[in-house]
Design goal:
7-stranded mixed sheet; single chain; 6-stranded parallel sheet
Length: 623
């Protein structure tokens, strides 16, 4: 189901500018992604497997250059299409990363007024142009080492004091720690998630922190050196993926450059940005013909240009080479598609005259017999976050009273009573045997080293792993848990988990998430936990929990009764967090090869809520 090859758009010859054409194309690309999923285009994961409806993660948007990325991101967001940008050269062009680089530059160089203004206007400080203008007109200066900021008031002055503080701290620790502290203190990841309702901000902030960590891997470096290095990276073709391997469960369209897609394959490919044309540079200083080893040199501009050698012929040869390379790039893009290929023909009249990619496709007959897709108008712009939320005015009448009340509120909220679903669900004997305060990183996984190794391998492997991958991951996780001699046992249990009915349902589902964390407030107690797997289907959500301890078949039912409270807390936590109904809970006892449910989700949740209300609680902690 769905078009094998299709196109949309065409030449816009009404005098529209390139930016306007890119905006039109971006809206249709987003609409195309929605149509593919809503109309149920079908894909197949393997040649001998049945077709399944496509999801967003099956779609890749390939663009030849980074020019239209901002417009494309905006359209995908407005259309409600989840997406992720892949390829380092694209990531550096995203607005979140540009804003963060401005902030880091402002922290490093107090004399860079352009970077400081960019930082003030970014989401990190959210100062408007009016705020900045009022500050300057009142005698303030764009710089945090000029004059005395201690007495200045207002958002701009407060922001400059923050930059001043980070400037003083920039040499106290690692660069990665500085980036992470700035992102955390200014709430950049949270702001992006709330504003755009996706993971992109979090992923991009994490990416820059990882780049900083890699940059200083061989020894301490200065913040200025890091900023210069990051700026240099933004000008290069890079194949890094933001969060590659960490967010593979996300149902999101992938956005890549054609260069970044080399060697990859996708069920559905949308070729966008085809208004781009081959580079037509005629000012190369050095020209070389590798066939006959002839060389030419040119220096200067136009009539004053100095030429040495056969510049004219070598320039023509270079232009032919560039055109041939451009056609090869189109071939690479088109052959990334496995089941469906859709290409955009949007371009200006001027781009057609410059041999734009879309013009070349049409001239080569790519549109003959190919349906031209038409899309409905884009949906109305989604309501902004917190639309309709009522905010009561504070009861305080002065700023001092407000600060005092706020301090009391924050102080009271910092002490929370928390516990975990796993802790509450264990028997006393199991708690004593399993809890190990020396390994806080293992929280949320199984209580034994073998169990943790199995859970880690299941989390890291794809849902349809081959035997080589299972062996490799099992061996690595066994070594990480200091039980290398038990790698065969880990591999055996991992294979049993992936051959279970729950794993089969996960492979067939539109989305299946692993190691899903949750936290829910119940009667003053914060209950936290990790769900091993969450399977999404039209009927609702299915919670899957892997049990790796050795349990005989006849012991399954008695052991299952011990997990009723834990299962109920899982249901409460997931339903509170997602506002979706949990339709089933499945415990997979991999050693026994059994899948069982501890009961009806609604009943389990009701029972768990009553137990918590009766006084089951954990320790208090100062946050």
């Amino acid at each position: 189901r769905g078009e094998g090859v299709a196109c949309f758009g065409g030449e816009i010859g009404d005098g529209s500018l390139a930016g306007q054409v890119r905006a039109m194309e971006s809206r249709d690309v987003a609409a195309c992604c929605r149509a593919i999923v809503e109309e149920g285009w079908e894909v197949s994961d393997k040649p001998d497997e049945a077709h399944r409806p496509a999801s967003y993660r099956d779609i890749a948007i390939l663009i030849p250059t980074r020019t239209g990325l901002t417009s494309l991101e905006r359209s995908l967001t407005e259309a409600g299409v989840p997406y992720r940008v892949e390829g380092g050269s694209l990531i550096y062009r995203t607005q979140e990363v540009r804003d963060l680089l401005n902030c880091l530059t402002a922290i490093d160089d107090p004399a860079d007024e352009v970077a400081i203004v960019g930082a003030l206007r970014s989401p990190a400080f959210a100062c408007s142009d009016l705020d900045i203008a009022r500050f300057v007109s009142g005698g303030g200066r764009i710089g945090y080492l000029r004059g005395d900021l201690s007495e200045a008031t207002g958002r701009v002055a407060e922001s400059l004091r923050v930059l001043q503080d980070f400037h003083g701290r920039r040499g106290d620790g690692s660069l990665a720690a500085l980036v992470e502290e700035f992102v955390a203190e200014r709430r950049l990841a949270e702001t992006g998630i709330l504003d755009r309702a996706d993971r992109n901000s979090f992923r991009r902030m994490r990416y820059i922190a990882e780049q900083a960590r890699a940059f200083e891997a061989n020894g301490p470096e200065s913040l200025r050196a890091l900023v210069q290095w990051l700026e240099g990276c933004s000008q290069q073709q890079m194949l890094d993926n933001e969060g590659a391997g960490l967010d593979d469960d996300e149902d999101a369209v992938r956005v890549l450059t054609v260069h970044g897609a080399k060697g990859l394959e996708f069920p559905i490919v949308i070729m966008a940005g085809m208004g781009a044309a081959p580079s037509n540079r005629s000012d190369r200083r050095f020209l070389v013909n590798r066939v006959d080893d002839s060389v030419a040199v040119q220096v200067g501009k136009s009539a004053a240009r100095f030429k040495l050698g056969d510049v004219t012929n070598l320039e023509q040869t270079e232009k032919e080479h560039v055109k041939a390379e451009f056609v090869r790039l189109l071939y690479v893009a088109a052959t990334r598609a496995r089941d469906h290929l859709v290409f955009s023909l949007y371009r200006t009249k001027r781009a057609s005259a410059s041999d734009a990619a879309a013009h070349q496709l049409e001239a080569a007959g790519a549109c003959v017999g190919v349906p031209a897709l038409q899309f409905a108008p884009p949906p109305a712009t989604p309501q902004p976050p917190f639309k309709g939320v009522r905010v009561d005015d504070p009861a305080a009448t002065t700023l001092e009273q407000f600060d005092e009340q706020r301090g009391q509120l924050v102080g009271a909220s910092r002490t929370q009573t928390y516990t975990s679903a796993t802790r509450l669900g264990r028997t006393a004997e199991a708690k004593e045997a399993a809890e190990d305060d020396t390994e806080p990183w293992s929280r949320g996984r199984a209580g034994t080293r073998l169990g943790r190794a199995v859970h880690a391998a299941i989390q890291s492997l794809p849902l349809d792993p081959d035997d080589v991958a299972v062996e490799a991951f099992s061996r690595a996780q066994a070594v990480a848990e200091a039980i290398p001699n038990r790698a065969p046992d880990v591999a055996r249990l991992v294979r049993a988990a992936f051959s279970s009915g729950a794993a089969q349902r996960a492979r067939a589902a539109s989305r299946a998430l692993r190691e899903v964390p949750f936290a829910v407030a119940l009667d003053g107690v914060i209950v936290e936990g990790f769900v091993d797997m969450l399977i999404e289907s039209p009927a609702g959500l299915e919670i899957v929990d892997w049990k790796t301890d050795r349990v005989a078949g006849e012991e399954v039912q008695s052991r299952l009764a011990e997990y009723r409270l834990q299962a109920g807390l899982y249901v409460l936590g997931i339903e509170e967090a997602t506002r979706q109904r949990v339709h089933s809970v499945t415990y997979v006892f991999v050693s026994a090869g059994r899948e069982e449910s501890p009961g009806d989700p609604a009943g389990l949740a009701s029972e768990a809520r009553a137990r918590v209300a009766a006084g089951v609680a954990g320790p208090s902690t100062q946050l």
